[in-house]
Design brief:
The complex is a heterodimer of chains A (488) and B (95). Chain A is of the alpha/beta class. Helix content of chain A is 38%, strand content 13%. An eight-stranded mixed beta sheet of chain A has the order 4-6-5-10-11-9-7-8. Chain A has a three-stranded mixed beta sheet with strand order 1-3-2. Chain B has 95 residues and is mainly α. The chains are: A alpha/beta (488), B mainly alpha (95). At the A-B interface, helix 9, helix 10, helix 11, helix 12 and helix 13 of A face helix 1 and helix 2 of B.
């Protein structure tokens, strides 16, 4: 088995046991990136020199019986996480020249666990998009079909993991940005409960929705990575101070008696019938293992897309006001006065979709419209959360498709924001409620992967990872690899 | 609630963005598409539901009022687009 076919867990074990060194593994993945990423564009920066230094340090630590639980294992970080001394662009011209002076808490924690950073992955600009086409550095291609999008916004992380250019990667999810690209690229990705992972050093999009999580090939690998990302951080006041759960210890649990709710709203009449079939078949596999399936209803979820497109742009318009061309980031040439400096730096530095969302958010928060848009959206947000709360009185897990469609063609929706926004119709409600959810590969249609979404109650990451792991023990969808590249 | 080009220009100014005359019509039409989708919210019966600003019912923790920040001037000044004598440079504001 080639090194790139090994799971994150197997690589961790192999390095620990001395079957291979961190340097060998790191060089192998760097070589794959060099050879194949020109086709995919999944990386914005490859940090070869630093990766090899980290790998050598990990190998030395092992010889001294030191090193963290992920000692020497290479992964990639979404380019939304600040990395000290390395460009952190958020896929925007605004931050094209931004060398971060500090590490995000997630980067720091994984670094302490011994992780080697291969590089920074491509994404939609400021995480605003569902196709990875809004990146200043160009679109990412889906490794299953280079003419199609990988999903977004964590499209580079998803494509890199699917193409075996990295065994795992970090992602962030504001409205589906981990789960939807995981679904479209055939990998496993988890968005934790809001407040589980520190947002410090993660460039903010919508602060009441943003959450970082792991993207890997299996639920087991996601659990291993998540375990090393979570925990209280006094630098993020929304990061909860509670005991850290053990996501690995429950993975193998029997799922006999687990109650799975299927919301009728996640299987609308106009849903692609093949996607509905694949999803139902995956749930039937869990039923075979003893899970009980019941129908439920989440009536307010149908308003989650309009609710999100008020709240997220409103928060974004506030968060992105920090980019002023003064302290860091892009500044326009020869500003005539301060207003000109602000306006031109921002207009030239931000891409179209980002500017669109800033305008929508500014409008929704402006005098005379606040009640009609922002306040109303916040009230509907509570209705959506209450729907989930009622459902979780009856069921343990909620399941459905992750995305209403397969990976679509590059450019197919570029000029139609509303259709693009609908790509997240099944994922957005989870962010509004703050719940944990994952996407796992459930099958294929015409050679393209289909993702199945499992939503858990607050802090029940362990339960959905357990169900996904049991599913993956009985199926091999998650082990399928795209053939675009061949071996090296 | 459709908006016109004047509103777009006013909102753009509030957001410190420039919308050129040639882009204004298209921007207005795109934003109206988004706002008409968002108008579905008006059908929701929210009664006296309390607005939800945050996903979890938690209180913001307060820290002790002591200085914890270290001097990071040497790290943050070099990434500024224009600086002199440890100050950020901007076009003249006061004549």
């Amino acid at each position: 088995m080639s090194l790139h076919d090994k799971s994150l867990t197997q690589l961790r074990d192999g390095i620990q046991q001395g079957d291979f060194s961190s340097r060998e593994v790191t060089e192998h993945f760097l070589a794959r990136i060099k050879k194949h990423d020109a086709q995919l564009n999944s990386f914005i920066s490859v940090t070869e020199e630093r990766a090899l230094q980290q790998a050598d340090a990990a190998d030395q630590a092992r010889q001294k019986n030191q090193g963290g639980v992920l000692n020497g294992v290479p992964i990639a970080h979404k380019d939304i996480f600040c990395t000290r001394g390395i460009r952190t662009s958020c896929a925007s011209r605004m931050l094209d020249n931004f060398i971060s002076p500090y590490d995000a808490t997630v980067v720091d924690k994984l670094g302490n666990a011994g992780i080697v950073t291969l590089g920074k992955t491509n994404m939609d600009e400021f995480a605003m998009g569902s196709s990875n086409e809004t990146s200043f550095y160009g679109p990412v291609k889906n490794p299953w079909d280079l003419e199609r999008v990988p999903g977004g916004s964590s499209g580079g992380s998803a494509a890199a993991v699917a193409a075996r250019l990295a065994p795992a990667a970090t992602g962030t999810d504001t409205g589906g940005s981990i789960r939807q690209p995981a679904a479209l690229c055939g990998i496993t990705g988890l968005k934790p409960t809001y407040g589980t992972v520190s947002r410090w050093g993660m460039i903010a999009f919508a602060s009441s929705l943003d959450q970082a999580g792991p993207m890997a090939r299996s639920a087991e690998d996601c659990a291993l990575l998540l375990q090393n990302m979570v925990g209280h951080d006094e630098k993020d006041s929304t990061c909860l101070n509670r005991a850290v759960d053990n996501y690995l210890s429950d993975l193998d649990n029997d799922i006999n008696g687990l109650t799975i709710g299927l919301p009728e709203e996640f299987f609308p009449a106009d849903l692609n019938g093949n996607i509905a079939d694949v999803t139902r078949k995956a749930i039937a596999e869990l039923e075979k293992q003893g899970a009980k399936v019941v129908s439920i209803s989440l009536p307010s979820v149908k308003l989650s897309v309009p609710t999100y497109y008020v709240i997220a742009p409103a928060e974004a318009s506030s968060n992105l006001s920090r980019f002023d061309g003064v302290r860091y980031g892009y500044r326009c040439e020869d500003p005539s006065d301060l207003m000109d400096l602000y306006k031109r730096s921002r207009s030239e530095g931000f891409g179209d979709e980002v500017k669109r969302r800033i305008l929508v958010g500014t409008y929704a928060l402006s005098h005379g419209y606040y009640d009609a848009y922002y306040l109303k959206a916040q009230k509907v947000r509570r209705l959506i959360r209450d729907d989930f709360a009622r459902a979780f009185e009856k069921v343990d897990v909620i399941a459905g498709p992750t995305s209403p469609e397969l990976a679509f063609g590059l450019g197919a929706k570029k000029d139609d924001p509303i259709t693009m926004y609908m790509a997240d119709v099944f994922t957005i409600a989870v962010n509004l409620a703050g719940l944990p959810a994952l996407s796992m590969p459930g099958g294929f249609i015409d050679g393209l992967p289909v993702g199945v979404q499992l939503i858990g109650n607050y802090f029940r990451e362990g339960q959905i990872l357990n169900a996904a792991h049991r599913f993956q023990l009985a199926t091999d969808w998650h082990t399928q690899a795209p053939t675009f590249a061949g071996d090296i | 609630m459709a908006i016109n080009q004047d509103t777009i220009l006013r909102v753009a100014h509030l957001a410190r963005l420039q919308v050129s005359e040639q882009d204004c019509e298209e921007t207005t039409s795109r934003l109206n598409d988004i706002l008409s989708m968002v108008d579905q919210l008006q059908q929701a019966d929210v009664g006296d539901i309390a607005p939800m600003a945050h996903p979890l019912d938690v209180h913001q923790p307060l820290r002790q009022d002591i200085i914890t920040e270290t001097d990071i001037r040497a790290e943050v000044m070099p990434i500024a687009p224009a600086q002199e004598d440890n100050c950020y440079l901007v076009p003249r504001v006061i004549e």
